[in-house]
């Protein structure tokens, strides 16, 4: 286990530690050199007006990373830069794609989704969904408007 994982493990009260929690917190704390060999997958963002924006992202990146790294213009998207405080990176997945996601929204993400506009049963925050190889070609819908929960 890395030094960062040990620091994270020692900073969280016993009983609340999970492997997923450690990996997610360690990801936020690390500043290592990214692997240049990661496979790229294609994502299509479908705006509320039906226009489509295709982009590529590397496996392990979040949907928010893809928007930022590809300079995709989505009004207000990702205002809090992935800190789970705004709900502006709200995306709507097709049911089949949603069912294949490794995690379901819970905790802070669930709380932020309650504040998002146009939430559906297949809504997720783009900062919390990370690309996998099986997502190549995925299409996600971007709601018509965003709600920055920090401004309420």
Would you give an account of this structure?
26% of the residues lie in helices and 16% in strands. The chain contains 5 helices and 5 strands. The chain has a 5-stranded mixed sheet with strand order 2-1-5-3-4. α1 crosses α2. The N and C termini lie far apart (40 Å). The model is unreliable at 1-8 (pLDDT under 50).
In short:
The chain is α+β, with helices and mostly antiparallel strands. It is built from five helices and five strands, in the order ααββαβααββ.
Essential attributes:
26% helix, alpha+beta
* Strand numbers in spatial order across the main sheet: 2-1-5-3-4
The helix-and-strand class reads alpha+beta
Shape: globular
**What would you call the quaternary organization?**
single chain
Helix-strand pattern: HHEEHEHHEE
Helix % is 25-40%
Sheet with the most strands? Answer: 5 strands, mixed
Radius of gyration: 16 Å
* Extended strand count: 5
Unreliably modeled segments: 1-8
Instruction: Please report the distance between the alpha carbons of the first and last residues.
Output: 40 Å
How many helical elements? 5
Strand content: 15-25%
In round numbers, the mean pLDDT is 80
């Amino acid at each position: 286990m890395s030094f960062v994982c040990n620091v994270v493990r020692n900073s969280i009260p016993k009983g609340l530690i999970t492997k997923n929690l450690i990996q997610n917190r360690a990801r936020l704390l690390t500043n290592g050199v990214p692997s240049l060999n990661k496979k790229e997958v294609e994502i299509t963002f479908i705006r509320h007006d039906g226009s489509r924006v295709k982009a590529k992202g590397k496996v392990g990146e979040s949907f928010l990373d893809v928007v930022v790294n590809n300079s995709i213009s989505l009004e207000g998207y990702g205002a809090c830069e992935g800190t789970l405080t705004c709900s502006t990176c709200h995306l709507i997945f097709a049911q089949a794609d949603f069912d294949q996601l490794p995690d379901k929204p819970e905790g802070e993400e669930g709380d932020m989704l309650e504040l998002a506009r146009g939430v559906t049963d297949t809504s997720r925050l783009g900062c919390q969904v990370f690309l996998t190889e099986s997502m190549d070609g995925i299409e996600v819908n971007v709601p018509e408007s965003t709600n920055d929960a920090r401004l309420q």
